[in-house]
Amino acid sequence: MASPIMRRKALGRELRKLRAESAQSLEEIAKLLGCSVAKVGHIETGRNSPSKPELMVLMDHFNLSSQDRAVFEEIRQEASQRGWWSTYRLPTWFSNYVGMETDALRVRSFELELMPGLLQTEGYARAVTTLARHMTEPQEVERKVELRMQRQQRLFEEEPLELITVISEAALHRCAKASNVSTGQLTHLIEMGKRPNVTINILPYDLGLHESMSGSFHLLDFPPDTWPSTAYQEYAVGGHLVDDEDIVSELDTLFAELREQALSEQDSVCRISEFLHG
Question: HTH cro/C1-type domain: from which residue to which, for each copy (predicted)?
Answer without folding.
Answer: 15-69
